[in-house]
Structures are given as structure tokens and as C-alpha cells.
Amino acid sequence: MPVRPLLEAEAFGPDEVKVLVSAFEASLKALRLVDRKDPAVLMVAERVIALGKAGNLDALALRDEVVETFKNNPPRKP
Question: What is d(CA 2, CA 25) in angstroms, rounded to the nearest whole number?
Fold first, then answer.
């Protein structure tokens, strides 16, 4: 799942989109999520977007916060 379609519905500028996409990709890599159809990928995208909307627009800080979120609350597999 690419994150860009989810970002289109939000009010982010091009520079912000680059940061969020970078954070999304880095988060997936850190969490070892390779299957883009995995529901956890959507959860990562939603978390990155929520943090971006809250004002966090530092790619490394976003990645770190997303990874911490998943370490503390791993998604449950159906």
C-alpha cells in the first residue's frame, strides 16, 4: 500500500508529503514490513499521518515514534 493516496486527502504541502513518505518507508523498513497488503502497513501509514497532522514533521523522529508505538502495542494478526 502506498501512502501517497492517503496523503492526498490531507492538507499537506509537497515538502511535508516528502517527509511523511520518507518516514513511512523508514518505519516499514525498521519494522520489517515488506508485504504491502499486510494490515499493519495501513496502521503505520495512519500513525505517520496522525503524527504529521499533530505537527511532527521530522522524518527520523516520526520513524522513531512509529516504531516505539508498534513495539509497545504490536498489531494483532487476524
Answer: 9
